[in-house]
């Protein structure tokens, strides 16, 4: 061993400093944990109070007439059949229109537009639509389809809801396809399959549960939209399945009845709000179960 070799220097632990730092960290942890628990409790209290009020008043107003009678003048014991059917028609058509468009755009962004400037522009526009207030979409469709054609219509409501669901499906489809391993794509391409077949048989099949989850979340979003329908389909208190005329919908009926001075209309508004809440709850449960099954 060389005479110039020096023993390794080890840091000396100051027990007093370590104890002081440990007490400070523990105190900070307790404060942050307490604030987090308090914020969680406050949020849960408000959510629980809303849900309890909704379920109590909604179930109290629920009866067979809600599902078998159309909306009628005050005191006539009407129901919400026309509003329920109108909402179903508009939501289903909007989903059938918006889902293929959203899937194709999301597929383009994930499979063809990686690193391209045009893909970045499309993704940016999609993100803007995803976060845009729904009333702005309603105003856009009002200028595009209501004013030029001289009146409100169910088709205008369908168009507004389709525009809302498209960016949700786009974002979900792109994210789910991005999770598909590239090795699967390379294996299929290496076997001589064209790219479109690789996308249909491998990418879509691998990401189908996540894509369906996004579609269900999009349906849950548009099922309770009121603002865009005020400027498009407007609403109708009579039975109507004519998409070329003003069309009833559950959110519009709730909006109109909740602010009325008539007690029977207010009770119907609570019943309609409960129906939408239960529908959205079931869709979210279905989406989570599908996503969990896909994982």
UniProtKB/TrEMBL annotation:
<dbReference type="InterPro" id="IPR051408">
    <property type="entry name" value="Phosphate_transprt_permease"/>
</dbReference>
<dbReference type="Pfam" id="PF00528">
    <property type="entry name" value="BPD_transp_1"/>
</dbReference>
<dbReference type="InterPro" id="IPR005672">
    <property type="entry name" value="Phosphate_PstA"/>
</dbReference>
<feature type="transmembrane region" description="Helical">
    <location>
        <begin position="121"/>
        <end position="146"/>
    </location>
</feature>
<keyword id="KW-1133">Transmembrane helix</keyword>
<feature type="transmembrane region" description="Helical">
    <location>
        <begin position="268"/>
        <end position="287"/>
    </location>
</feature>
<keyword id="KW-0813">Transport</keyword>
<protein>
    <recommendedName>
        <fullName>Phosphate transport system permease protein PstA</fullName>
    </recommendedName>
</protein>
<comment type="similarity">
    <text>Belongs to the binding-protein-dependent transport system permease family. CysTW subfamily.</text>
</comment>
<keyword id="KW-0592">Phosphate transport</keyword>
<feature type="transmembrane region" description="Helical">
    <location>
        <begin position="152"/>
        <end position="170"/>
    </location>
</feature>
<keyword id="KW-0812">Transmembrane</keyword>
<feature type="transmembrane region" description="Helical">
    <location>
        <begin position="83"/>
        <end position="109"/>
    </location>
</feature>
<feature type="transmembrane region" description="Helical">
    <location>
        <begin position="204"/>
        <end position="224"/>
    </location>
</feature>
<feature type="transmembrane region" description="Helical">
    <location>
        <begin position="30"/>
        <end position="56"/>
    </location>
</feature>
<dbReference type="InterPro" id="IPR000515">
    <property type="entry name" value="MetI-like"/>
</dbReference>
<dbReference type="InterPro" id="IPR035906">
    <property type="entry name" value="MetI-like_sf"/>
</dbReference>
<keyword id="KW-1003">Cell membrane</keyword>
<keyword id="KW-0472">Membrane</keyword>
<feature type="domain" description="ABC transmembrane type-1">
    <location>
        <begin position="84"/>
        <end position="287"/>
    </location>
</feature>
